[in-house]
Design a protein that fits this description.
There is one protein chain. The protein is of the alpha/beta class. The chain has 2 domains: 1-142 and 283-321, Isopropylmalate Dehydrogenase (3-Layer(aba) Sandwich); 144-276, Isopropylmalate Dehydrogenase, CATH 3.40.718.10. Helices cover 36% and strands 18% of the residues. It has 10 helices and 12 strands. The chain has a 12-stranded mixed sheet with strand order 3-4-2-1-5-12-11-6-7-10-8-9, sandwiched between helices. β6 (148-153) and β7 form a beta hairpin. The protein is elongated, with a radius of gyration of 20 Å.
């Protein structure tokens, strides 16, 4: 039984088709034959034409259909699109949701190594605080909010405890169980995939958190849970000082866990640019995505960097089920 990789073409108003083409040109024939792309056949063909790309596309009904040549195998999401890139919001939303639903069902199969979703504007999922991480976690019925958004590079990974929520809500959502479950999921992943107990740094929430003010989240929540994690033989240290840890101290850790999204993603992307992938831990299958957005300002400029998508493919080939 040949294992398959599913790539979701994602947001139609994006650089995704450019990245798919550029990656496809780099892959070996053997790897190409394992890849199936969930998209709209006519839309992808129109986008390639607009970009001036020449590529053979083959429409298939399912991943059971073998295609012996090197064409891009498209599992068609049957919708009508009049434009190549200027796709209306409602059509884009319907397309993205149908694509994710199809990928979720396929990912549960034993002959699928994992899924990759290209960039998606999370507004298309009809909830401004609801990204693909949360969408697939709900589909997989993940319990205790133990799913994790892990931004991975071989030299360092980062993970936010809270993801797509407003800053003003973070302190209300943070609690000991939430932090504990996230860090336990991270440790389990590193033990299973890399056969190591990771060194995990845990950041504080507040500015100058080393002052340890009595009513601060560091004193009430973060320090007690770090002590509990240590009692359970998990290698953690913190709370780390947010404004200095990414100067040099980060090199001591396999993972740095922050309390909110941009606290860890902004410095991480400054360090590693496009050389990273987004992995959702805690699902029933392996899901990764490029660590960047839709980059609508770059559409048709043909300068988008495919490195992150290429890294996603390589990661699934190495660690997929």
């Amino acid at each position: 039984m040949k294992k398959k990789i599913i790539i979701i073409s994602g947001d139609p108003n994006s650089i995704n088709s450019e990245l798919i083409y550029k990656c496809w040109k780099k892959l070996s024939k053997k790897i190409k034959r394992s890849i199936y792309i969930i998209s709209n056949f006519d839309l992808l063909r129109k986008q390639f034409f607009k970009l001036g790309y020449s590529a053979k596309l083959t429409k298939v009904n399912d991943i059971d259909e073998e295609v012996l040549n090197d064409s891009l195998k498209i599992i068609n999401i049957d919708l009508n699109f009049n434009n190549a890139f200027n796709v209306p919001f409602k059509s884009s939303s319907k397309f993205v949701i149908k694509s994710l639903e199809k990928a979720h069902k396929l990912a549960l199969r034993k002959d699928v190594m994992g899924i990759i979703n290209c960039a998606i504007d999370k507004k298309l999922l009809s909830n401004k605080n609801y990204g693909v991480t949360e969408y697939l976690s709900k589909k997989c019925k993940v319990k205790n909010q133990s799913e994790v958004m892990l931004i991975f590079n071989k030299n360092l990974s980062v993970a936010p405890v809270t993801t797509h929520i407003d800053i003003k809500k973070i302190s209300k959502i943070l609690n000991k169980n939430l932090i504990y479950n996230k860090i336990k999921t991270i440790e389990n992943f590193f033990k299973k995939s890399f056969k190591i107990k990771p060194n995990i740094g845990v950041m504080g929430l507040n500015p100058h958190n080393a002052e340890l003010r009595k009513k601060s989240e560091e004193v009430k929540i973060i320090i007690p849970i770090i002590k509990k994690l240590k009692r359970n033989k998990i290698k953690v240290k913190g709370p780390l000082i947010s404004d200095t840890v990414f100067i040099n101290e980060y090199k001591k850790y396999n993972v740095i866990v922050g309390m909110f999204h941009d606290q860890v993603l902004a410095p991480f992307k400054t360090l590693f640019k496009f050389d990273a992938i987004n992995i959702t831990l805690g699902l029933k299958y392996l899901r990764v995505s490029p660590d960047h957005g839709t980059a609508r300002k770059l559409i048709l400029k043909k300068i988008a960097n495919p490195l992150s998508l290429f890294r996603c493919i390589k990661f699934i080939l190495k660690f997929g089920k």
